[in-house]
Amino acid sequence: MRRKTKLIHGGIVGDPTTGAVSVPIYQVSTYKQDGVGNHKGFEYSRTGNPTRHALEELIKDLEGGKAGFAFGSGMAAITAVIMLFDSGDHVILTDDVYGGTYRVITKVLNRFGIEATFVDTSDLDNIKDAIQPNTKAVYIETPTNPLLKITDIEAAAKLAKENGLLTIVDNTFSTPYWQTPISYGADIVLHSATKYLGGHSDVVAGLVVVNSDQLAEDLHFVQNSTGGILGPQDSWLLIRGIKTLGIRMEETESNTKAIVEFLQGHSAVKKVYYPGIESHPNHDIAKKQAQGFGGMVSFDVGSEENADKLLAKLKYFTLAESLGAVESLISVPARMTHASIPKDRRDELGITDGLVRISVGLEDAEDLIEDLIQALKQ
Ligand SMILES: *Cc1c(COP(=O)(O)O)cnc(C)c1O
């Protein structure tokens, strides 16, 4: 199956009992047993629900792994994955990781003895130098949020394997339509499905795919024990969103290309961050491991004041956190998604007060560019 076909025919299709072409929403908590332990595969919906199961099978097929898991949010998915580790274990993470990931690792999971080091994983030597005797995993986000840095998944996974570490990839920005980290050696892939997979700003969800039977068993144990599952309604919405992922990602890609070209030629824009630009430090790696560069672009307009002026004038870019939706969104990472990272740390990373991040939507590119032209006028 090719990629667009798999989005529609992967996982579990329809309902064999009724012939319904879409998977029904099984709004149910418990299941009748014909004798103790004699059931049809479902006992209680925290453990397993048919609608959620259909979604879990679908994401498993899309990422090319052994098992899929659906959670109530991306953060619930990330937390469950880190709960695979023990107190005293150490994880190496990408330094400009999603703000919520930084927060849960440094303010919540630290209380349970999870140790972490944040390094620029786009340079493999940094990962090598951060490995300790108690290190258990390398956690990569690529491209990163909001500076669109790229880590070589294949090289990082090879280094991790040589040192007996798991490789975990947050694949939210690329989606399996553009990038399948398991095919480059990753052990665990996770998503905030709230973004491109859902795609319509109407559901909060997280997905995980693991690439071994042991990890599948361990993560199901955590999911069932801690209970951060996705409900059947939201599972169904995600399945629906995923069916159009291919055409949405293709259209996003062409809109983004046009916008990046425009921004690069504009005098009010100091710097454009996008892996599709040839001068991006890891453009070649992005090209090697992903079939598209995505719809996230960050650019620096020089100051907080300039950023505010831009935001006030834009008509089609909605000021909002989140990304990956049909509508174009804009945010100021320093004061929004990355506000939970201390200012001195933000400056260290390059997340300046004048940095704005756009998530390019599915409007006409001409309208989006005209909007940027009028908003960037001094
Ligand atoms: C949004 C996001 C998350 C968190 O997901 P939620 O669904 O908001 O809990 C994690 N990683 C990345 C890259 C994100 O963009």
TrEMBL record:
Enzyme Commission designation: 4.4.1.1, 4.4.1.2
A Pfam short name: Cys_Met_Meta_PP
Residues spanning the membrane: none
InterPro entries noted in UniProt: Cys/Met-Metab_PyrdxlP-dep_enz, Cys_met_metab_PP, PyrdxlP-dep_Trfase, PyrdxlP-dep_Trfase_major, PyrdxlP-dep_Trfase_small
CDD domains xrefs: CGS_like
Cofactors (names): pyridoxal 5'-phosphate
Superkingdom of this protein's organism: Bacteria
GO function term, MF aspect, one: homocysteine desulfhydrase activity
SUPFAM superfamilies with a match to the protein in the record: PLP-dependent transferases
Keywords per UniProt: Lyase, Pyridoxal phosphate
Enzyme type, top EC level: lyase
Signal sequence, renumbered to the chain: none
Family: Belongs to the trans-sulfuration enzymes family.
Protein name as annotated: Cystathionine gamma-lyase/homocysteine desulfhydrase
Annotated organism of origin: Cytobacillus purgationiresistens
